[in-house]
Amino acid sequence: MKRIKMLSRFFRNNKEYDNSACDHFFSLKRKSWVSLLGYLALIFCGSASAILSGKTSAIHGHPPNVKGTLYLLQPDGVTLIEKDELLHPSDIPNKLKLSSLNTGLEFFDKDGDLGLRGKIYVNEADIIWMYEDGKRLNSYEQSKPLGKTKKYRVNVVVPVEVSSATGIPSKDKISFEWQYKPEVGIVPKISNIKTVRPSVLANGKDSHVIIITVTDQRNQPLENQDVLISVNNGVKIADTYGEDSIMLSTNRKGKISVNITSDISGFHTAFFEIIENKWQSQIQMNFIQP
Questions:
Q1: Model pLDDT for residues 111-159, shown as the tens digit of each residue
Q2: Strand bridging mode 255-262 / 207-215
């Protein structure tokens, strides 16, 4: 409205007119035309910062918003730590870096810009480790394994640059804050099962030697893990007086060895279950006719 008044004032102050508004409009001298065009440009172009351009790189107008999840990386610097995954007692806080993966983030803004995408500036991230009660870990504590403490809090503040296919260029970064509440523990899993021989005779005497390896979520061998081993359909576990199930514990290398026999030819299955967390696996064995 202020600019419309400025235009009206221009006509009132201009002395080069006659009684006709139309004659006045077309009788303006060159200098007056230049002034008029300047006013028009001011009126119609003054709000250009909120107008969408063609296909450019970044957003202008209303600042975009970001929400969602970031990811930390395992000590190998490659493998993602999933949101609900237990951290390992041997993990060291300052070795767990922030991932640049942005698939867990959502980008949106009030301008309706299309093709929103974001870049996470991981090298500028501020990662704060705290105990469950909110007390910060000092630099020494962050350089040591997490150990037996079960729960932590992690606050991450990181710059995120959001761009689009339709927004007017801007280089502003958004400060995105993410809170993560990891727990620490061991997750046993059967990481490997193998047979020593591809096939044995189905004579009730020759046996398949099955070797099971139990590790944690960082693939470190676990000792003293109880595993239930079971078979069926006439298959027996050797040295058990014909039983079809047995519970054995892993040695210091995380391994169990068991012998399985059958007097029925064909493919048979052995089943394995870790007692602590019900992790299950299986393997097929080939018994051939004598």
A1: 666 677 788 999 999 999 999 999 999 999 999 999 988 999 999 999 9
A2: antiparallel
**pLDDT value at position 100?**
92
Q: Which helix (H) or strand (E) holds 259?
A: strand 255-262
Residue 93: both structure tokens together: 């806080």
Q: Strand pairing of 255-262 and 117-120?
A: unpaired
Q: Which residue carries 């139309």 as its tokens?
A: 22
- The C-alpha angle 182, 186, 189, rounded to 5 degrees, equals 120
Sign of the dihedral through C-alpha 113, 119, 120, 121: negative
What string of H, E and C letters represents the secondary structure of 159-213? EEEEECCCCCCCCCCEEEEEEECCEECCCCEEEEEEECCCEEECCCCCEEEEEEE
Structure-token match 């803004």, residue found: 109
- Token look-up 């296919």 returns 165
Helix (H) or strand (E) holding 24: helix 21-26
- The kind and range of the H/E element at 221 are none
Residue type, 66: V
